[in-house]
Design a protein that fits this description.
The protein is an alpha/beta fold. The protein is 18% helix and 18% strand. It has a domain of 106 residues: Rossmann fold, CATH 3.40.50. It is built from 5 helices and 7 strands; from the N terminus they run αααβαβαβββββ. A 4-stranded mixed β-sheet has the order 1-2-3-4, with helices on one face. A 3-stranded antiparallel β-sheet has the order 6-5-7, with no helix packed on it. It comes from Nematostella vectensis (Starlet sea anemone). This is Xaa-Pro dipeptidyl-peptidase-like domain-containing protein.
């Protein structure tokens, strides 16, 4: 079934991508991460938590030295405007207009007075069977001036064997009591969110 799907895909790039599964010259030739310092122009980054690519905005925000602004919302790999799911949407055309008026026409319009990073922090909700059932994801917009943020806090959770629940821990040391032993998994919270749907 999977091979049939691959061979009959309507995505012409898929076979090319599958034949370059490591970071070889195919990927390096067009990648800005080979030398971030070559980017001199102002950069507007927009990404989404439900996108297949969840980390490029943060990687570029950390590595670029040019003027930049970044917006990360709850949406997927699509325009973040009216009708996007999951929402809330933003008026991306107005964001683009202000950005281009500022940097291409030289207008002073407040585009550079916006926070450097605007990030939608989703609240935890029970995941629906189908992501498209979520119209507006509960959460709030937060603003940061740098990335990585000085407000980032790492919480350590472990899976308790006895209760089969996640428990917040303060140490990575294993308990001597077998009923209190935990298993630890370290993972990107966005890992697997699309589960191969882009293919």
């Amino acid at each position: 079934m999977w091979k049939h799907r691959l061979h009959h895909s309507s995505y012409p790039w898929m076979n090319t991508w599958l034949s370059h599964q490591t970071r070889d010259d195919y990927w390096k030739h067009a990648s800005i991460c080979e030398d971030f310092s070559q980017i001199k122009c102002p950069v507007l980054l927009i990404g989404g938590w439900a996108d297949l690519y969840t980390n490029p905005v943060f990687r570029m925000a950390e590595s670029l030295t040019c003027p930049l602004k970044a917006i990360v919302g709850p949406w997927s790999h699509c325009w973040p405007g009216h009708g996007v799911t999951p929402g809330p949407a933003i008026d991306h055309l107005e964001v683009f207009r202000q950005w281009f008026d500022c940097h291409l026409k030289g207008k002073t319009n407040g585009a550079m007075q916006q926070p450097n990073l605007r990030i939608y922090m989703k609240q935890g909700v029970k995941m629906p069977q189908n992501l498209s059932d979520v119209k507006d994801w509960p959460g709030e917009w937060i603003c940061e001036e740098q990335w990585p943020s000085t407000n980032n806090v790492c919480h350590l959770y472990s899976l308790c064997q006895k209760s089969e629940k996640l428990v917040q821990t303060t140490s990575t040391q294993e308990s001597r009591d077998p009923s209190q032993r935990t298993r630890s998994i370290q993972s990107d919270p966005a890992c697997g969110i699309n589960g191969g749907y882009n293919m």
